[in-house]
Design goal:
Helix content is 91%, strand content 0%. The chain is mostly helical.
């Protein structure tokens, strides 16, 4: 005998698989368009079946009402009402299809925009990587500059010491004298 606990697992798995399928279908714009068209087609098919059922019922009731003198007027009124409702439903479905087409166009535009934004993000990532590389290179060049400045300071110090160590060199300097 199956218990409630034993029936939950398959139902949960089925629900999980359905959720996975819906997530996969909604992530792809082309699949969304196909599903939308299929749903609209299915709804139009259901509408056509309902209209056919109403017409069959109207034909079956027509002979029974034909025996009564006021029945043809009632049938025509009912038929006129059904035709009006059918036209209204058809117009409503046309509006929904137009809205669906508008949404498909917007979805395509959004897909294009997403592609452009991804390309922009990729370029920005490339620029960040280049900026990082240049920052490291700048740091290396600054360290080299500091080393060279240290060497120049050391050379200047050595020149000053050498000139102090030679007393005659300071006296023989041009333009200096009594």
């Amino acid at each position: 005998m199956r218990t409630l606990a034993s029936t939950r697992l398959p139902l949960y798995q089925a629900t999980s698989h359905l959720k996975d399928w819906i997530a996969a279908a909604t992530s792809d714009p082309a699949t969304m368009v196909c599903l939308s068209v299929a749903i609209v087609g299915l709804l139009l098919l259901v509408l056509a079946v309902l209209v056919a059922v109403f017409l069959v019922l109207a034909r079956r009731q027509a002979p029974q009402v034909a025996a009564e003198p006021a029945a043809p007027a009632a049938d025509e009124a009912a038929f006129t009402r059904w035709v009006g409702e059918g036209r209204h439903l058809f117009a409503e479905w046309q509006e929904r299809i137009e809205r669906l087409n508008e949404l498909q166009v917007r979805l395509a535009a959004m897909t294009d925009e997403i592609g452009r934004l991804r390309a922009d993000v990729s370029r920005m990532d490339d620029l960040r990587a280049e900026t990082f590389r240049l920052t490291q290179e700048t740091g290396a060049l600054a360290a080299e500059r500091d080393q060279l400045q240290g060497v120049l300071v050391r050379i200047g110090e050595l020149i000053r010491r050498a000139s102090e160590a030679r007393p005659g060199a300071a006296d023989a300097a041009p333009g200096v004298g009594p």
